[in-house]
Design brief:
The protein is of the alpha+beta class. It has helices at about 10-20, 55-65, 70-80, and strands at about 5, 25-30, 30-35, 45-50, 80. It is built from 3 helices and 5 strands. It has a 3-stranded antiparallel beta sheet. The chain has a two-stranded antiparallel sheet with strand order 1-5. The chain is globular, with a radius of gyration of 13 Å. About 15% of the residues are buried.
Length: about 80
């Protein structure tokens, strides 16, 4: 059976990305902008909707966006259940 996405709130997702070194740099409306600066000075930015429960498609898009900066196995540990 393929792994399934966990049902997460924006607060849960924020906690996950903070563990990867991201910080909230701004909020506008119902979205937060998360950013971390790498050792070589690159800025990595993610945008996250601040909803109580995120839809599966929205979570998939967030994981896809984060996969540019974080390895797939690390993301799978936190976003998918076995």
């Amino acid at each position: 059976m393929a792994p399934r996405l966990r049902r997460l709130s924006a607060r849960d997702v924020l906690r996950i990305f903070k563990s990867f070194g991201f910080e909230v740099v701004s909020t506008r409306g119902s979205h937060a902008k998360l950013r971390r600066i790498t050792d070589d000075g690159r800025r990595e930015t993610l945008t996250l909707p601040l909803h109580r429960e995120l839809d599966v498609g929205t979570l998939q898009a967030i994981v896809r966006q984060a996969a540019r900066f974080i390895s797939e196995p690390e993301l799978r540990k936190r976003f998918y259940r076995d």
